[in-house]
């Protein structure tokens, strides 16, 4: 009986990964499919019918052989998968509408049960900024916080080094077995051994430019607050700060000289309302209200009603309201006059049929 239970668990992991690794199924769609059908396998079985209802061809599902190879590789690395509906899934991250359905992790998950602070900044940071980031990380750790960053050059590296002794989380934009940048190989290994290493991409995935914004949302989502230490006006660090603000988290910045281009992003954030940070005490005072121990993660990561079958009338009304310009889903529900659940199902069908695109902020548009 134990062997049967293990086999059932393994097949459940494979089905969830196959759903997640299917390119046209994003985090929102994944969560809605599980909310509607209960299990990943039931969702996989239903996809062809849903896509036909949406007027398109069913998506090509992920290859089962690739999924089996991923599961074996994760086990070989001494890592494991962490799914959105697992009790250990980070509760603050689960609050995001587009929370990652699955993460690969290696290390100590208990670090995420403490208040988390993201420290991010320029890759070409000044020596003074790196020293300040490192000292902030040391002091935050001594104050009981976990430091989260992206294992990039510059400020990220300094933050991880400062927090190694007290607890740090590294979020990478590649597979958990890939090192980027190469000079951080030893640091990444130490973070995985002494802290916690997280990756959304499957093992073996090399970092691509499109992966970094996804990584940044995880950094912001894990954290009660994000601190920016030196950043250009159009940088990944400011993207992380924006994502933190959109998630309702604290955004903080270290001021710098107006003569230094690397300080312009931080000064801009402060001008727009970010908290000015001079020491770790300023940060700890801001993040206490968002202690993750006070937040309960949603069971399946989807806050709306489970989608339910829609009538032809609902389909006609929703498609009539859609166009190439992205519109909030709430507005579609209001103007259609239909309940949220069947409208959600129509959008799900259209997306699986390749006719709908989802945008940030809960907006959707027709493709083409």
Task: Describe the protein's architecture and organization.
By secondary structure, the chain is an alpha/beta fold. It folds into 3 domains: 2-78, no CATH class; 105-294, 3-Layer(aba) Sandwich (Rossmann fold); 312-366, Winged helix-like DNA-binding domain superfamily/Winged helix DNA-binding domain (Arc Repressor Mutant, subunit A, Orthogonal Bundle), CATH 1.10.10.10. The chain contains 15 helices and 12 strands. It has helices at residues 2-20, 27-37, 40-53, 64-76, 91-94, 127-142, 155-163, 185-194, 211-222, 236-246, 264-271, 280-287, 312-321, 329-336, 340-352, and strands spanning 80-83, 102-107, 116-121, 146-149, 168-172, 196-199, 225-229, 250-253, 275-276, 327-328, 356-359, 363-366. The strands form 2 sheets. It has a 9-stranded mixed β-sheet, sandwiched between helices. Strands 10-12-11 form a 3-stranded antiparallel β-sheet. Helix 8 links the parallel strand 5 and strand 6. Helix 13 packs across helix 15. The longest helix is centred in the first third of the chain and has 19 residues, at 2-20. It is globular, with a radius of gyration of 21 Å. Residues 1-8 and 294-303 have low confidence and may be disordered.
